[in-house]
Amino acid sequence: MPEIENVAEHNALFGKYELGRLLGCGAFAKVYYARNVQSGQSVAIKIINKKKISGTSLVANVKREISIMSRLHHPHIVKLHEVLATKSKIFFVMEFVKGGELFAKISKGRFSEDLSRKYFQQLISAVGYCHSRGVFHRDLKPENLLLDENGNLKVSDFGLSAVKEQIRPDGMLHTLCGTPAYVAPEILSKKGYDGAKVDVWSCGVILFVLAAGYLPFNDPNLMVMYKKIYKGEYRCPRWMSPDLKRFLSRLLDTNPETRITVHEIISDPWFRKGYKEIKFHQECKFNEADKMKDLNAFDIISLSSGLDLSGLFDNSFNPADDGDRFVSTESPDNLIRKLEEIAKVEGLIVRWSKEFGVELEGQYGNLGISVEIHRLTDNLVVVEARRSGRDGAAFKDAWKKKIKPKLCACEGTSSQQESESHSGSQVAGG
User: Could you name the domain of life of the organism this protein comes from (predicted)?
Assistant: First the structure.
């Protein structure tokens, strides 16, 4: 990024910000530490390269990100100070939270129940505030919880999910590649879901980790973990109080209809112990034309790796070029039979690789697709396709434009709802 390097040399971005060290980077953005030369205030500046997002849906999403973030003024949400731009770059000037990730501290050991409650109260205050404005985060996880210099929690990643801190805590609690461990069961069911209910589930998982020191749903086998989440199979440690165990059972209720709401959380006896309602100055006013209902951070911030749920699995999986996943209600037998029929029409060679797995090959060797079907529940399966041939473009053309739409059509699923660039949205019920 020559332009930024030149700015750094002169230590003056727009004559206002002195750029410092690189904090992290993602596919479309870099984040630098900076200081306001007039006030001395420390800030974090996210710099987006316009050329990398030009001609994509990301342009509109960045505009919506600015619109939403400029409205969120809460003591436990990372603040957007201002947005600047040049011909080739967009600059998000944001609050710098220097205390680091909350989970960097818990990786050293679980918190007391009182301290867990304090952080949970601050988290719910922020989440409830967002919900009241029609914004649903849907990507609440350890990386998104920061601590300021006073030890207070700040919710981040309303646009920074693609950016990773250089200093990262070790251990199973940290999700460098992302993890499905915080995903609500209804997201796996492909039946649509309530953004507020999904956030409450994730908050429940976070509270469990704070008080227990480990994840409630965890297994090295992805499908086993999915099943545990879907069935709500977890076990509280013996040191948890009966009231906390009861409270967690309401947060981690697999039925979103009966799961506790934010309003009910605030009224719960365990939650209210030592609770002081957080009061703050409301800095923004809404114009009727500006109101947006049912917006969520995934839709607003497509720079977020969380938007693509396939990114929650592993680093080697590149949804744009290497593969795709979606949830289906069809039986494995029916899906395999349908695959064979489609392959015949498309002139592809079919080779069996395992009980519910096939290899599809083009006649000239340039196209190769490995398809595996995993049983998730009695009624749901996960279909995973990976490119095994050398031509990524051929994979996208064959799988995403021809094979997958027909597979989805066999269960009445509209392929128009499934984005090529965000294959994880199928898992999210999108």
Answer: Eukaryota
Mean pLDDT of the chain: 74
Last residue of a domain, one of 68, 95, 122: 95
Residue 304 CA to residue 280 CA, distance in Å, equals 28
Instruction: Quote the Cα angle for 194-199-204, to 5°.
Output: 125
- The domain boundary, picked from 79, 95, 111, lies at 95
The verdict on 269 and 363 lying in the same domain is no
- Does the pLDDT of residue 56 top 80, yes or no? no
257 with 335, same domain: the answer is no
- pLDDT at position 190: 64
Q: Residue 139 catalytic? A: yes
Neighbours of 190 (CB within 10 A): 20
Among the listed residues 139, 157, 253, 308, the single catalytic one is 139
Can you read off the two tokens belonging to residue 16? 């206002």
Which residues form the domain of 206? 102-307
Same domain assignment for residues 117 and 238: yes
Threshold 0.85, pTM exceeds: no
Q: Rounded to a whole number, what is the distance in angstroms from the first to the last CA of the chain? A: 35
* Predicted local distance difference test score (pLDDT) of residue 85: 82
